[in-house]
C-alpha cells in the first residue's frame, strides 16, 4: 500500500499558485480628469487623467514629466466630491505616474473608499 504522505511527483515539481498581490489596498481602474502640480512650485498645474485609484495611492496619465520623490498635489472629483490629495511620486513609466498618498484625512479616505466600494458592489455598475 502506498504511503499517503508521499507525493507521486518528483521533488523538483512545484505548483504555480499565481502572482501574489503585493498591494494591501483595493484599487479600481477609472478615467477621471485631474490636475497635478508640484507642492513646492508656483508653476501652472498640468492636466491629466486618473487611471488607477486606491486608498493608498493613484496613477495618472499626462504628458508632463514628474520624477520619483516629487511631492505632488492632485485635484479631481469623485461622484461630485472635489478632492485635493498630496502624495509622493513613486514611479513613472511613459505617460503614467504612480503616486503614494500622504496620510489621507478621514473625509478623503471615506470618499475614496466609498467610490471603490460602489465600483465593486453596485449592481448598476455590474457588466
From TrEMBL:
Signal peptide: none annotated. GO terms for molecular function: cyclic-di-GMP binding. It comes from the Bacteria. It holds the Pfam family PilZ. Residues 21-116 form the PilZ domain. InterPro entries: PilZ_domain. This is PilZ domain-containing protein. The lineage of its organism: Bacteria, Pseudomonadati, Spirochaetota, Spirochaetia, Leptospirales.
Amino acid at each position: 500500500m502506498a504511503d499517503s504522505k508521499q507525493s507521486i511527483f518528483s521533488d523538483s515539481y512545484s505548483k504555480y499558485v499565481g502572482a501574489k498581490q503585493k498591494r494591501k489596498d483595493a484599487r479600481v481602474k477609472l478615467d477621471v480628469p485631474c490636475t497635478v502640480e508640484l507642492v513646492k512650485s508656483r508653476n501652472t498645474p498640468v492636466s491629466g487623467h486618473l487611471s488607477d485609484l486606491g486608498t493608498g495611492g493613484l496613477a495618472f496619465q499626462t504628458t508632463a514629466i514628474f520624477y520619483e520623490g516629487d511631492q505632488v498635489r492632485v485635484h479631481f472629483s469623485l461622484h461630485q466630491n472635489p478632492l485635493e490629495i498630496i502624495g509622493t511620486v513613486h514611479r513613472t513609466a511613459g505617460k503614467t505616474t504612480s503616486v503614494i498618498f500622504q496620510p489621507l484625512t478621514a473625509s478623503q479616505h471615506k470618499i475614496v473608499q466609498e467610490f471603490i466600494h460602489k465600483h465593486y458592489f453596485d449592481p448598476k455598475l455590474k457588466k
